[in-house]
Design goal:
The protein has 340 residues and is α/β, with parallel strands linked by helices. It has a nine-stranded mixed beta sheet, sandwiched between helices. Strands 10-11 form a two-stranded antiparallel sheet. It has a domain at 26-259: 3-Layer(aba) Sandwich (Rossmann fold), CATH 3.40.50. Helix content is 21%, strand content 27%. It has seven helices and eleven strands.
């Protein structure tokens, strides 16, 4: 277990407050590590990931013999690095081709050493929760192509720090458990900062993840070209700028149900209050019910001056005139006018 130290200075307290959980979390930093032995391909892959997330990533180039994901006791060093660097994601690359140490017991789960021959160019991606391992996904890298292997107009190169689009193509991301888990991890790794509004002119890149089979995903990085379409919305074209690779899912470990519920808790300030008698319909939209009390019209008091009273009086006066009754003489009074 890691030793927990209480802050003794104001600077240390402020630093801990920055790392404390927030209602709206900022973009998670990515920790990039090397395993016991890494090949030339894995070094290139880790370098490309670091350049794609340069603003929010931290890389250690030294070899780490004590980091062993999927093995009891081999995750302490990862948790130490998470607490030290305040990173929420990690990427570990391992590759060892030692045929003499190949184990025959399939129940032994070990990323390093005995099982390494079966898993060349191994990449482990995972997430932290409260500086502890939350979940793990182990993939193998095949058919890797770096940025330098693509030729295109350099003016179209995506800008550093721009918000990317992510497209997942294939039914496997909805039906296969391994690919569903890989989709969650790739979203956390590639999406960048979560925003509510986005300017269309700032979209210049997209990650396309295609489910080729039940355990293989083709990942490519493309630039977006905005062209005229005759309407307000421009037409977009994809130009592959790299890197691209095939990710073969080997092992994955989901979080237990108790840890998942604790990590998915929503703050009380962000919970929406339930509105009575209001429902949402996909066709009608927002609908509601209004309750009106019974209207007792018989007991309602009419106003003193009704609109129909004057008309009735005029009609009665006309009836009297038609019957030959002489109307009453008006009173004569006031000043008399002189005759001319």
């Amino acid at each position: 277990m890691l030793k927990v130290k209480t802050p003794k200075t104001g600077r240390a307290r402020r630093e801990l407050e920055k790392r404390a959980p927030k209602l709206v979390e900022t973009e998670k930093k990515t920790l990039i590590l090397h395993g016991t032995k890494t090949s030339h391909v894995l070094n290139a892959v880790l370098t490309e990931i670091y350049h794609l997330k340069k603003e929010n990533s931290l890389r250690y180039t030294r070899k780490n013999d004590s980091i062993r994901p999927f093995e009891a006791g081999g995750e302490t060093s990862l948790e130490f690095f998470s607490q030290k660097t305040d990173c929420g994601l990690f990427v570990v690359g391992t590759d060892t081709l030692n045929a003499e140490n190949c184990a025959k017991d399939v129940n032994v789960i070990c990323t390093f050493g005995s099982h390494s021959k079966k898993r060349p160019d191994n990449l482990v991606i995972g997430r932290f929760y409260d500086h502890h391992i939350y979940d793990l996904v182990e993939v193998g890298v095949e058919n890797f192509k770096s940025l330098q292997s693509f030729s295109y107009d350099k003016k179209m190169a995506p800008k550093m720090g721009s918000k990317p689009l992510i497209a997942f193509v294939g039914e496997g991301f909805e039906s296969v458990e391994e690919l569903k888990h890989l989709k969650e991890v790739l979203l956390e790794l590639l999406r960048g900062e979560v925003v509510e509004n986005l300017n269309l002119a700032g979209l210049d890149r997209i990650y396309v993840c295609t489910a080729v089979s039940s355990n293989r995903v083709f990942l490519s990085h493309c630039a977006l070209r905005l062209k005229k379409s005759g309407t307000v919305i421009p037409r977009m074209e994809l130009v592959e700028v790299g890197p691209s690779m095939d990710l073969v899912v080997r092992r994955h470990r989901l979080p237990n149900e108790g840890l998942r519920k604790e990590a998915m808790k929503t703050a009380s300030e962000h919970t929406k209050k339930k509105v009575k008698n209001v429902k949402g319909d996909p066709i009608l939209g927002k609908t509601g019910k209004i309750y009106i009390p019974d209207q007792k019209l018989g007991e309602m008091a009419l106003p003193n001056k009704a609109r129909g009273v004057k008309r009735e009086r005029r009609e009665a006066k006309k009836n009297k005139d038609s019957n030959g009754q002489v109307p009453k003489k008006q009173k004569q009074g006031g000043l008399s006018t002189p005759s001319t």
